[in-house]
Amino acid sequence: MEWCSKFLARCVAASLICLSGCAGQADHSASSHSTQVTVGGPLLVPGDSIRLEETDDRFIGRVSGMAVAPDGSMLVADGMQGRVARFARDGRFIQMYGRSGRGPGEFVAPTGIAFSGDTLIGIVDSREGRVSFLNYPEGEFIKSVQVDEVVSGRIALYKDRIWLGAQSAFTHTGMLVVDPTSGESRVFLNYPASIAESRVLSTRYGNATFHIGSRDSIFAILRGASSTLYLIDEQLEVASARAIPERRRWGAPPDLGPRMDAARSQQEEFRLTSSPFGVHQLANGHIAVIHFDQTLRLDPVHITNEGWLSVLDLSNGVACVDGSIPLSPDNFATVKFAGDTLYTVEQAVLTNGRAETFARMYSIDLSSCEWLPIQERQL
User: Which of 15, 210, 293, 301 is the most interior residue, by most CB within 10 Å?
Assistant: First the structure.
């Protein structure tokens, strides 16, 4: 499909910003750690699989982000056509938010979507460095906030602030918090030396994926240090860092910076490290982490994904890592947690040549886990 190649070519040219960004009862108890007998990572138990209703004039051109609304509706960002589609829990199309453009309520490359309560949406336009606010469910434009840093699709609306994954090669930081009323902002999450000293990592792999959890704790992973989970305190200082064990994913080699700087192509860069695509605190306090191993192909431009889920029990210092996320490697896809449910949204090209978009839901089963020790990293 020609539009796929054109969009991905623009993403690569834009330093990958567009890409950083798309049931049984699980036993999450700490006591289960001592009873595991089967070596393995988390298992994803399939729940509902829903085809999203699309027509010739209201289809998803390219899935670039999603969120689940408090009422159960699914909002899917279309990075190809500059708009966000809202679907009912059963896949029925409800309405379209925004349109392609650079004016109020318009988008060039919408990615991250976040809710504040039941009536306010914040949508990141990664290409424009802007967050637009719409009321919900009507979708009427309220205001936009411009951001100076290079923003990814990671956003949270919390305590009347906008929280973003936003890399800055000048301050060597990977996150940003903005007061939408005054426009005042603060960068935080300083790069470790491994990123700061690398030309490639500091300019293209410095943004963070994150989650604001209980007691105002922030859990974050920098793209250029994908095997390290940072715990950030209320003063926005890094309180500690934990190594995320690796079993099946590529991970991040200790000499990633020099190897990135020596890479001769972006295809080579892609294969040097896993990319963090999500962090989420589950109801029992465990931290779920999503990584993608991505391969970049050229002529035509295409990216294949292999997804991995890890669960960290920080209280007991153990992790169950690298369970496979059921994704077709050749489909456009995004993943997102809502509560303890993992949503995947994928576009598949059918045998008749038509592209259809499916939302699938999974619960987490930890009964087959081998729990590995988590090591502290020096700050």
Answer: 210
